Automatic annotation (TrEMBL):
<dbReference type="InterPro" id="IPR006357">
    <property type="entry name" value="HAD-SF_hydro_IIA"/>
</dbReference>
<feature type="compositionally biased region" description="Low complexity">
    <location>
        <begin position="338"/>
        <end position="361"/>
    </location>
</feature>
<dbReference type="InterPro" id="IPR011990">
    <property type="entry name" value="TPR-like_helical_dom_sf"/>
</dbReference>
<keyword id="KW-0378">Hydrolase</keyword>
<feature type="region of interest" description="Disordered">
    <location>
        <begin position="331"/>
        <end position="371"/>
    </location>
</feature>
<protein>
    <submittedName>
        <fullName>HAD-IIA family hydrolase</fullName>
    </submittedName>
</protein>
<feature type="region of interest" description="Disordered">
    <location>
        <begin position="1"/>
        <end position="75"/>
    </location>
</feature>
<dbReference type="GO" id="GO:0016787">
    <property type="term" value="F:hydrolase activity"/>
</dbReference>
<feature type="domain" description="GCN5-related N-acetyltransferase-like">
    <location>
        <begin position="682"/>
        <end position="743"/>
    </location>
</feature>
<feature type="compositionally biased region" description="Basic and acidic residues">
    <location>
        <begin position="42"/>
        <end position="59"/>
    </location>
</feature>
<dbReference type="Pfam" id="PF13344">
    <property type="entry name" value="Hydrolase_6"/>
</dbReference>
<dbReference type="Pfam" id="PF13242">
    <property type="entry name" value="Hydrolase_like"/>
</dbReference>
<dbReference type="InterPro" id="IPR036412">
    <property type="entry name" value="HAD-like_sf"/>
</dbReference>
<dbReference type="InterPro" id="IPR023214">
    <property type="entry name" value="HAD_sf"/>
</dbReference>
<feature type="compositionally biased region" description="Basic and acidic residues">
    <location>
        <begin position="1"/>
        <end position="24"/>
    </location>
</feature>
<dbReference type="Pfam" id="PF18407">
    <property type="entry name" value="GNAT_like"/>
</dbReference>
<dbReference type="InterPro" id="IPR041065">
    <property type="entry name" value="GNAT-like"/>
</dbReference>
């Protein structure tokens, strides 16, 4: 299940009265963002589900009654898949309770909690049910119950994305020091992307609770404080930062950031404009010492964005995780909750500056008399989140470009690409080797690396030991533990959805079958055994007979997991038929969609990041639609190598989610100057885009040519002046020779 399909945590602790609402109410984590997406990305734990739940046919655990218009089919299909371990009658009732939670969470949180408790009574071993109970308890102000349920959900699913909300509950229980411990613990520091942002916001609120507002300011400065972004995430982050500045006594700077928050807040999820009115009138807000870290409607843009309940005539599927919410008036004992939903991500190691309470120096903004914080020591990558837009400028915002731009560590000169990161997550086919041959410069480059490298492959046909042995045969230094496969991630997905001892139909190699057995799931090759799931991976032996068995099982209701959806498989002979083509055949035969473990889906990439234990990993691969999009899915940077499937022509037409940070000819480019291979304007190269014609000239550094052309072309496509499907490339001199050598078809 994607991160959009989780129960949201709206109105976290927001109050009706101004003085109460000013403290923690809106400053905590945003919602179930990544609940399933992150649980799928996995922490390697199996759900604690010994068997099918409640065979009582729905005769017990009555719970609140349902309105006549409530149907189990209203629940999002992916959420319903989590209920497959229940008998049919019980699953129908649990689904209805979850639908009611979705409907009532905002307006009647107490009744929503009753439905959540009824669902929990029937399905206490299903992760999404426990998670929903935790969200409902949160909105009802039952902080202890919420923490208990969320911890149970995390135990079942292994989903560390719940940590920010658990920490927020600790604040609600009057234990801000415990919230800081969670944020600074190993699991809290291992969070990535939006989840890491949420955790920092909670930590900032806890710092304020503890009387450490300056530490709250520094904690938030590790995030992307680039004005000009719009959307719920930036609005909440800017509001949180403004509130932390205000709590630390830096009123002028807080005004600037409340202005930034108001400009970003196109969905009206904060009260930034009201705060500005207060500050303009010198009307000091109440409860300054417990300043709300973001004044935000917590669920407003949560991982589960759901529309209001549909009309009875044509109900749309409801994800229990899809509830947008208005503030809920609930006040925890003595302390207040922080909740915010930033949509930006941190990009490097945690800022050591968070331990210091010294305030950053000020610099003058272009607008007179407005103080703006100076860039902090921790550099932050300027990157847009998947759910935010960007604008060139917004009136009334401060420009902190320097805060978010990358700066070489020595402050000047060059830096090799590899030196920016603490681990490489390398694709195999088309990146490291092609079939039975190592690609040019691959062995030498990897031998020179001083940082860990992990081999992350969508190919599920071989086990890690076999992959490592093949790498060693080609001259690479590789051990089993350095290999992360989609077969492993696919097997883990099964373990999270099935009770131990369940049976899965395996379409794939014996290696895939063994991965399935090792997570406690039985293996069959026949639909006659009535398997609970089908897992499909690449195998050269897969044919009509095997696909037909899978089709029968899927049509009978079996969960379907695909290890990957690569349409082709690179080899020394060219592109062969990949698992994705076989998946397409089953999709066409059944009308169903599989859960996907491999790239570009998040599970495999998240497993690799967890294995690497890295703070700033770099994905390196040859496919835009798997490697690069997979990096995008988990919020980390990527480098495209031009040695495999994706071409320069593909790169120029790539949609935003498939655009790499860097482009290099082959792995030797890991030691090129980082700025020369970054997709951006490059000195010495001139790129003009007229309509859909791209004209390239100049004589700059050869390694910067493709990055320069990509940057200019994407800008034109995004501005609507070029059609990515109709691009024509003209080039002169050195540019023509280089592009032709890379297989680009040139005109003129």
């Amino acid at each position: 299940m994607s991160d959009r399909d989780r129960p949201q945590r709206d109105g976290r602790g927001e109050r009706d009265t101004r003085d109460q609402r000013e403290s923690r109410g809106q400053g905590g984590p945003r919602g179930q963002r990544g609940s399933r997406g992150q649980s799928d990305s996995g922490r390697g734990r199996r759900p604690e589900r010994p068997g099918r739940e409640r065979g009582d046919g729905g005769r017990r655990q009555q719970g609140p009654p349902f309105p006549d218009d409530v149907n189990a089919s209203d629940l999002d299909p992916e959420v319903r898949r989590d209920l497959l371990t229940l008998d049919k009658a019980n699953a129908e009732i649990v689904a209805k309770h979850l639908v009611m939670v979705s409907r009532l969470l905002l307006e009647e949180p107490a009744l929503a909690l009753e439905h959540a408790r009824a669902a929990r009574g029937r399905a206490s071993r299903v992760g999404v049910v426990r998670e929903t109970a935790g969200i409902a308890a949160y909105n009802a102000g039952e902080w202890q119950e919420s923490a208990t349920e969320l911890r149970a959900a995390r135990r079942i699913t292994g989903n560390t994305a719940l940590l920010p909300l658990i920490a927020d509950c600790e604040r609600g229980l009057g234990r801000p020091e415990r919230a800081v411990e969670i944020a600074r613990g190993d699991d809290g520091r291992a969070l990535k992307g939006e989840d890491a942002t949420e955790m920092r916001i909670v930590e900032a609120g806890a710092r304020i609770d503890l009387g450490e507002p300056e530490k709250a300011v520094v904690t938030l400065q590790a995030e992307n404080l680039k004005p000009g972004q719009v959307g719920t995430g930036p609005a909440r982050l800017f509001y949180a930062y403004a509130s932390a500045l205000y709590a630390s006594g830096r009123r002028d700077e807080s005004v600037t950031w409340f202005m930034n928050a108001a400009a970003a807040d196109i969905d009206d999820v904060t009260d930034a404009e009201f705060r500005l009115t207060e500050l303009a009138g010198d009307d000091t807000p109440a409860a300054v010492d417990e300043q709300d870290v973001n004044g935000v409607d917590v669920l407003a843009d949560s991982a589960v964005s759901a529309a209001p309940a549909a009309e009875p005539e044509s109900p749309a599927p409801i994800s229990v995780a899809r509830v947008s919410a208005a503030p809920v008036s609930t006040e925890p004992a003595e302390t207040e909750l922080v909740s915010v939903e930033p949509a930006v991500e941190s990009t490097a190691a945690e800022s050591t500056a968070a331990e210091s309470s010294a305030a950053p120096a000020k610099v003058e903004d272009e607008t007179p008399d407005v103080a703006v914080p100076e860039a902090v020591n921790e550099t932050v990558r300027e990157q847009q989140s998947v759910d935010t837009d960007s604008i060139e400028s917004v009136e009334g915002t401060a420009d902190l470009s320097a805060t978010s731009s990358y700066v070489a560590e020595d402050g000047a000169g060059s830096q090799a690409l590899v030196d920016r990161y603490d681990a490489l997550l390398l694709d195999l086919d088309g990146t490291v080797f092609a079939g039975h041959q190592a690609l040019p410069n691959a062995v030498d480059t990897l031998d020179r690396l001083d940082i860990p490298r992990f081999f992350v492959t969508n190919n599920a046909s071989r086990r890690p030991a076999e992959v490592a042995a093949h790498l060693r045969e080609l001259g690479f230094d590789a051990t089993d533990d350095l290999v992360v496969t989609s077969a492993q991630s696919g097997a883990r997905l099964l373990s999270e959805h099935l009770a131990p001892g369940s049976r899965a139909l395996v379409i794939g190699t014996d290696g895939l079958a063994q991965e399935v057995r090792e997570v406690g799931i039985g293996v069959t090759r026949s639909a006659d055994d009535r398997p609970a799931a089908v897992i499909q991976g690449h195998s050269t032996d897969t044919g009509w007979a095997q696909l037909s068995e899978a089709a029968l099982a899927i049509r009978a209701g079996a969960l379907w997991v695909a290890t990957n959806v690569d349409a082709t498989l690179p080899s020394e002979r060219g592109l062969l038929v990949g698992n994705g083509s076989m998946v397409a055949a089953l999709r066409n035969a059944t009308g169903k969609e599989p859960l996907v473990a491999g790239k570009p889906a998040a599970p495999l990439m998240a497993d690799a990041i967890t294995r690497a234990a890295a703070n700033a990993p770099l994905v390196v691969g040859d496919r835009l639609d798997t490697d690069i999009e997979g990096a995008y899915a988990v919020g980390i940077e990527s480098a495209l190598v031009l040695t495999g499937v994706s071409t320069v022509t593909d790169l120029l037409a790539a949609p935003p989610e498939q655009r790499p940070t860097y482009v290099i000819d082959d792995l030797a480019g890991m030691f090129d100057d980082i700025d020369s291979v970054r997709v951006s304007d490059q000195p010495g190269w001139k790129v003009d885009v007229d309509g859909s014609t791209v004209t390239v000239s100049g004589s700059g550094d050869e390694i910067g040519l493709v990055p320069a052309v990509a940057a200019a072309t994407w800008a034109a496509v995004d501005a609507g002046v070029a059609d990515p499907e109709e691009l024509r490339i003209r080039a002169e001199g050195a540019a023509r020779d280089k592009l032709a050598s890379l297989g680009v078809t040139l005109v003129g």
